[in-house]
């Protein structure tokens, strides 16, 4: 049994066959999914999925790329949704210095506000980090994010960065890029992360694993990530599934 801890099944890329994609995930042994709502458009569609399917949970937050448009009432909205029984985390939140859509100071302010909210609500956070390793770690430390912990989503940093995140009560999540033939650094990091701190995800419809690289990703493909972890750690796929499922349930309180 597997849990896809980060997916976007409400994406328009699934409009033609969403029900079939969800059925394929279940057939592949994915018995729980966490769908991520990250802005004004995707939070309602994420909540709708979580309310429609008993095995789909929600994380809600404001993505750093969209932080320039976040209003005070949006933070209040997220706060109110944290009381919903299917909402298990605040995210994805963080910093993205790759896309030049929101100024860094605005991203950092919105990130801090949501960490503070998570601490008020006692909820884990799901971290988006692109080309901003140093600042992400610094802000997590300055805001005492270790009090709630959470997930470093689709981790792409070094082992040194991973160690700092582990010390702050975060799980390290691996997705499709781990399976790429040229993924030397993620594989090295995985080999050093304690098994009880590993999560798996797809980030569907993005970042499809090998051999589907470049195509639409879907939650059933999380098994390919588990297969790669099995090869690297020497654990059976069944053991990887059991370990990562237990980790996810502990992290998200489900």
TrEMBL record:
UniProt superkingdom: Bacteria
Keywords carried by this UniProt record: Hydrolase, Metal-binding
Protein's UniProt keywords contain RNA-binding: no
CDD domains reported in the protein's UniProt record: TatD_DNAse
Keyword match Cytoplasm: no
InterPro entries: DNase_TatD-rel_CS (IPR018228), Metal_Hydrolase (IPR032466), TatD-like (IPR001130), TatD/YcfH-like (IPR015991)
GO molecular function: hydrolase activity
PROSITE patterns associated with the record: TATD_1, TATD_2, TATD_3
Coiled coil: none
NCBIfam families found in the cross-reference section: YchF/TatD family DNA exonuclease (TIGR00010)
Designated name of the protein: TatD family hydrolase
Record organism: Paenibacillus lignilyticus
